[in-house]
Design brief:
Pfam families: BD-FAE (PF20434). This protein is α/β, with parallel strands linked by helices. Helix content is about 40%, strand content about 15%. It has one domain: 3-Layer(aba) Sandwich (Rossmann fold), CATH 3.40.50.1820. The protein is built from ten helices and eight strands.
Length: about 290
């Protein structure tokens, strides 16, 4: 009797198994494109980002391009990067794009290290939600001016999990020890305004600590760099100095120095070349 009962149970289980396969077919319908605006990643009103998820995305193939705006760490907005969103969606429709805000520096909110930690929070949030979002949390970072500084600093110092695969640095300061800065700006008042000194060890040399070039190692990501030879804010030497450090550490890099200032007066041909180089970095490294 027990023998027959055993085989009866096996028979019922086999029917249930077949029935389950028939009743719950796998949904292979490609996901539709989705845009999520002003997604919060913290308690401050400026801690938000816009997320553009492409159609047909998958958790293995859909990697993320992060856009970081400039503005001297005290101003600017993700809307400044809207043209870059459109450009990247056109050339790289299979990638997700996150266009970010960070808390702008003021008397209550020093920039450093808080803005680096904002970028870290965004990476952590997208990583923790990657299964739900159907994305692969590997990142290419494209920053302009102060945003390029944040991108470089995050990759060279804070990206301990090696999730950043390339950095596009558009007129970003990379070496504050360059005499250009001391000669043209009131450095100590700027440090007093922008830095939470309590967050760093006593005696920290902030000109070095906040310079991405001083954090370059062999684990730095491939970096493409674009500077102007008449820039009143960031000297072209910041590009050549950074390239030398990347070369010394065996890190792939490209440097272009264009006629003009802080990126807003370069020729159309130069803009087109820079866009092409950034696009090739997306294709090759992400």
């Amino acid at each position: 009797m027990k023998k027959y009962l055993f085989f009866s149970v096996l028979y019922v289980l086999s029917l249930v198994s077949c029935s389950s396969d028939d009743s719950f077919p796998i949904d292979n319908t490609p996901l539709e494109a989705e845009t999520r605006m002003n997604v919060s990643y913290g308690s401050h009103p400026q801690q938000v980002y816009d997320l553009y998820l492409p159609a047909g995305r998958t958790a293995t193939d859909t990697k993320v391009i992060m856009l970081i705006h400039g503005g001297g760490w005290t101003s600017g907005d993700k809307s400044d990067m809207s043209a870059s969103v459109a450009f990247l969606q056109t050339l790289h429709p299979g990638h997700a794009i996150v266009n970010v805000n960070y808390v702008l520096a003021d008397a209550q909110n020093p920039a450093f290290p808080n803005q680096f930690l904002d970028i870290k929070s965004i990476v952590s949030k997208l990583t923790s939600e990657s299964v739900e979002l159907h994305i692969n949390p590997e990142f290419g970072m494209v920053g302009t001016s102060a945003g390029a500084h944040l991108a470089m600093m995050y990759d060279y110092k804070y990206d301990t999990n090696n999730q950043v695969k390339f950095v596009a640095n558009i007129v970003g300061p990379s070496d504050f020890t360059d005499p250009f800065f001391v000669e043209n700006f009131p450095i100590q008042p700027i440090i007093d305004q922008l830095v939470n000194e309590d967050a760093y060890p006593a005696g920290t040399n902030f000109l070095e600590e906040l310079s991405p070039g001083f954090h370059v190692t062999g684990s730095a990501s491939p970096t493409c760099m674009f500077y102007g030879n008449e820039d009143p804010l960031v000297p072209e030497a910041n590009g050549t100095t950074l390239k030398a450090k990347l070369d010394a550490n065996g890190v792939e890099n490209v440097l272009r120095i264009y006629n003009g200032g802080h990126g807003n007066d370069w020729s159309n041909a130069d803009f087109t070349e820079a866009q092409g180089i950034i696009s090739s970095y997306v294709s090759e490294h992400l």
